[in-house]
Amino acid sequence: MPPRxxxxxxxxxxxxxRLACVPxxxxxxRQLLLxxxxxxxxxxxxxxxxxxxxxxxxxxxxxxxxxxxxxxMAEEVxxxxxxxxxxxLIEGDDDYPGLLGRIHDPPxxxxxxxxxxxxxxxxxxxxxxxxxTAYGRRIASQLAGGLARAGYTVVSGLARGIDAAAHxxxxxxxxxxIAVLGSGVLxxxxxxxxxxxxxxxxxxxxxxxxxxxxxxxxxxxxxxNRIVSGLGLGTVVVEAADRSGxxxxxxxxxxxGREVFAVPGPxxxxxxxxxxxxxxxxxxxxxxxxxxxxxxxxxFETAIAADGREVRSPAELQLDDLEQSVLTAxxxxxxxxxxxxxxxxxxxVVAESGLAASQVLxxxxxxxxxxxxxxxxxxxxxxx
Length: 384
What we know:
Layout: H1 11-20, H2 27-37, H3 40-45, H4 48-52, H5 59-69, H6 73-84, E1 87-90, H7 98-101, E2 109-114, E3 123-128, H8 134-149, E4 153-156, H9 162-172, E5 177-180, H10 194-202, E6 204-208, H11 220-230, E7 234-238, H12 245-255, E8 259-263, H13 273-280, E9 284-285, H14 289-293, E10 303-304, E11 310-311, H15 321-334, E12 344-345, H16 346-353, H17 357-369, E13 373-376, E14 380-383
Parallel strand pairs: 3-4, 3-7, 4-5, 5-6, 7-8, 8-9
Antiparallel strand pairs: 1-2, 2-6, 10-11, 12-14, 13-14
C-alpha cells in the first residue's frame, strides 16, 4: 500500500513524518516530546529553549527540531516513498501492527517495503549472534521453518549469522517473515543481504523507523531491537555471547510482557553463555519448535491466521480437523445471544459437530491440555 495520496495536505501526518526525521529521536525521546507538548505539530512550534528544558534531550536535538520545522525534508521523504513504493504507517493507523502498538515506546512512524498481513499478529522473533557457528545457523533455520509451517510469521533483524538463517528458514518453508532494519528500508544493511531482503519483501515486509535513505548508525541497532521483540509474541535467542544485542532484545521482550526462549549450546562455546544465562534466569529452554508452540499463551486480541480462521490462542494453529471441528462447535454455541453462560454443553457439542461422543471427548481433552478450553460444572465446556 503506498503512502496516503493526500499526505502533503495532512498536517498531522506531515508532522509525524518530520518528527521521525529528527536525528537522535527514538521512541523514548519522542514520547517525552509528545508528553511535554501534546502533538507533533506543537513540538515543531516550540523553541529550542523550550525543547532543551526537557530532560535527556541535548542541545543538538533541541536545535535540530526548529530547523526541521522550516525545512522541506518531510515532504521530500513522502515524495521518495511514493516514488519507491514505501508504505508509511503512523501509530494508531488501522494497519499499524497491533502487537507493536502495545509496547511502552512504539515507533511513531514505520517505513515498510512489502506489507503487513493480519496473520502477522501471530509472530515469533528469532535473534542471535552475528558470528554464529554452523550449529547456531542450522538450529535457527530449523526453528524458523518449523514456526513458518505452523502458521507463524518469523521476525528478525536481517543481520549476518542467526538473523539471516532465521529469515532463510522461514522463506524456504514458504512462510512469512519480517526484517527490522537499523538503517532505512532503501539502504539495506549489510549490503550483501540485498538479495535476501528482496525475498523478504515478496513474502513479508522490510521495516524501519528510520527515514528510507538513512544509513545505519551504531546507536540505531539497540533501538531497532525493541521493534523486533515488539512485533512478536515471544523472542527466541539462538547463540549469544555474554554481551550482545540478542540479549538486549530478550530483555526488552521480557519488559514488554512477551515470552523469552533460549536454545542451549555446547558448554565450552562462548556463544552459549548468553543463552545459558537466560535459561538460568527463567527463559524457556528450547530443544524443538514444540517447546515454543506449547509455551505461547492467549493472544492480546483475536487474530486472523493465514488460512482465514479467527484465532484467539496460538495453540489453535496446531489443531487437526477433528479438534478444530469441536472448537468451532463450542464457539458457535457459546456465541448464541441467548447463551448468557458463554459456554456449551458437551451433548450440544456432539450434536452440533456431528461427531461421535468419544471423538468429542477426546478432542476436548486435547483442547484442555492446550489451554484453549476448560471444563465447567454441569457437563459444559468454555473458552479459557
